[in-house]
Amino acid sequence: MPQPKPQLVREIGLLALTATGICSMLGAAINVLPFMIQRHVPGIGPHVLPAYLLGAAPAVFAALAYAVLASAMPRAGGSYIYASRALHPYLGFIASFSQWFGLSIAIGVVSYLLVPFLVDIAVNVGFPGLGAQLERGPVRVAVALAFLWLFVAINVRGLRLYSRTLVPLMVVMFVAGSVVIVAGFAHDHADFAAALARRGESVPAVATLPLEPSAVFAAAAILFATFIGFDSIAQAGGEAKRPQRTMPLAIGLALVTVGGFYLLFTAAVYHTVPWQYIAARAQTADLTAPRLLGAVLSPGWTTAIVAGAAIALINDLPAMLLAVSRLMFAWAEDGIFPRPVARVHPRWRTPHVALVASGAVASGSIAGCHLAGDFFVGVDILALSMLVNFLLMCVAVLVLPRRNPTLAAEVRFLPARPAQWVVGALGAVVLGAFLFVHVDKDLRGEAAAWYFRSTWMWLLVMAVASVVFAFQWDGLRRRGVDTDARFATLPPEPIES
User: Fold this and answer.
1) Distance between CA atoms of 156 and 149, rounded to whole angstroms?
2) Per-residue burial over 330-355, b = 16 or more CB atoms within 10 Å of its CB, e = otherwise
3) Under DSSP, is residue 180 helix (H, G, I), strand (E, B) or coil?
4) CA 394 to CA 79: how far, in whole Å?
5) How far apart are CA 90 and CA 496, in angstroms?
6) Do the Cβ atoms of 151 and 317 come closer than 8 Å?
7) Nearest in space to 277 (alpha carbons), one of 479, 38, 89
8) pLDDT, tens only, 5-24
9) Burial code of 267-299, b = ≥16 C-beta within 10 A, e = fewer?
């Protein structure tokens, strides 16, 4: 008698779900973007915190839309499932494909950016030779690949090991981040200026610019990217316990926790380090929170916050690998991606083929980081991808009752239709405005070549996705699959743990 096909298992609880969202958001973003934004958006100056608050607005609407849809369609692949059942399979695939591409690039970028933090730790604890070795090209790539594939292996080994790894790392990350917050508010600009004077330096004189709405909106459209990790929770919908309750709750907890932490963390660093110094230095050097605060802290405390930043980066990897692998799994399960990608490991009940494939794509991103250079292009592509994806989620909330009334009846979060209209309509307007600002800035800004513009690269990715979809869709039709029936219902319910 043939053995039953292995399936995913619902065994990830509220804490691990929330940690998945938090760790996807807190990482390179919090330690780098609030400061390097001074290079990418000249003129933002002292207005980074207002830009952060503005950038949170579309994330809040998107999170509410995700919570509504997650409560009705708790399956692996989250955003793909929502759009394919509420809008059209093609829209679900291309939107989630661009999300998958952006996150895969981000995984490689995070892995590659981790090594400089390890170099700083080695130097601060008295091993400059080890730091120099880590900076060598082949060694840096090898270390980045080792961390990446370590977390691929942890994810393959099952959600219990994943949870036992992620949650403690999250706690350590918050403790180390709290050191930055306390240190930042314990010092001020005078302390920083005195520390620079001891090194023979001074804070550059940079004129304070008036609050320019265009600069704030442009910065907000980029800083918005730091809030997008909560969608990783939706990708785990096929493995969440009591998903109609835990998924909306985990999305809300992750967004509120991270939003508050971002604002405190950023405010603390700018409380010690004048924005004029950050704006001037960002033009010629890559800045991080530990490097900025290191001027006023002892070597021991500097090492502690560098280690915390490294932990924050490491935390990105397992959560984002979970997200991208579940997207691939969901495509394959629906038949619009090669079927072997939907295989589930018979012992560990994880989509091991999708995880290995995700690791391979991220490995290519590591190589690209080493050969190319500006990681902000990857950030721009990810921000553009998620703006489009989140916009579609808001539209899905609006049209789900008409397109698929059976699934609409399963909504448990904000079940009242007027509330859904407010979330969907306002979210679509706000996200549409941010999308326009992002694309306009990208196309108007200076670029050495067309492939340094995120808009053209995103359209290229969409063209590839369209070809893949057309090929797979034609295969479904030739095999006689009733596509209307398949995409009107959800994939099979996973096994309860």
Assistant:
1) 10
2) bbbbbbbbeeebbbbeeebbbbbbbb
3) helix
4) 11
5) 30
6) yes
7) 38
8) 788 999 999 999 999 999 98
9) bbbbbbbbbbbbbbbbeeeebbbbbbbbbbbee
State how far the Cα of 396 lies from the Cα of 91, in Å rounded to an integer.
Answer: 11
How many C-beta atoms lie closer than 10 Å to residue 166's C-beta?
Answer: 26
**Joined tokens for residue 1:** 């008698």
DSSP state of 286: -
- Cα(227)–Cα(236) distance, rounded to whole angstroms? 18
Q: What is the spatial distance between Cα 208 and Cα 25, in angstroms, rounded to a whole number?
A: 31
Q: How far is CA 67 from the centre of its chain?
A: 17
Q: Is 127 helix (H, G, I), strand (E, B) or coil?
A: coil
pLDDT in tens, 159-213: 999 999 999 999 998 998 899 999 999 999 999 999 999 988 888 877 666 777 8
CA distance 1 to 149: 37
CB atoms within 10 A of CB 219: 28
Helical (H) or strand (E) element with 192: helix 189-198
Nearest-CA neighbor of 308 among 285, 292, 289, 295? 289
Which pTM value belongs to this model? 0.90
